[in-house]
Amino acid sequence: MSGSIAQGTSQTHGNTHILHFLVRLPRPMEDVWTAVATPEGIGAWCTAVGVLEPRLDGAVSLRGLGSGRVTAWDVDRVA
Predict the structure, then answer these.
(1) CA distance 62 to 55
(2) What is the per-residue pLDDT for 39?
(3) Taking phi first (over 0 means left), then psi (-120 to 50 degrees means alpha), and beta for anything else, what does residue 64 get?
(4) CA geometry: angle at 17 spanning 14 and 19, to 5°?
(5) In this model, does residue 79 exceed pLDDT 90?
(6) CA distances to 5, 55, 74 from 17, in Å
(7) On the CB side of 53, how many CA atoms lie within 13 Å of its CA?
(8) By CB neighbour count within 10 A (0-12 exposed, 13-18 middle, 19+ buried), where does 61 fall?
(9) How would you label 25-53 residue by residue, b for 16+ Cβ within 10 Å and e otherwise?
(10) pLDDT above 60: residue 1
(11) 3-state helix/strand/coil string of the chain
């Protein structure tokens, strides 16, 4: 699968650093959402998910990558 990634932006708030990228993929939105916003989807292409609370400020933990909080959540649009 190929796609395009627009120029990213970054923000710093104290000790918090945020990177934002818009990725365009030639797939139906439902397929992309499943791949990036569900434990099964993330596990299939990235790493096992220990915790994923699908909501704003929900906990997330990815094996080998770390843990944190969900900072944006809009079903079928932003995760």
Answers:
(1) 16
(2) 96
(3) left
(4) 150
(5) no
(6) 20, 20, 21
(7) 11
(8) middle
(9) eeeeeeebbebebeeebbeeeeeebeebe
(10) no
(11) CCCEECCCEEEEECCEEEEECCEECCCCHHHHHHHHHCHHHHHHHCCCEEEECCCCCCEEEECCCEEEECCCCECCCEC
- Could you report the per-residue pLDDT of 5-62, keeping only the tens digit for each? 667 888 999 988 888 888 788 999 889 899 989 999 999 999 999 999 999 999 999 9
Structure tokens at 39: 């434990």
* Higher-confidence position of 1 and 75: 75
Contact criterion met (CB below 8 Å) for 47 and 65: yes
Question: In the structure encoding, which two tokens stand for residue 65, read together?
Answer: 């990558």
Q: What is the identity of the amino acid at 50?
A: G
* Verdict on whether the full-model pTM lies above 0.85: no
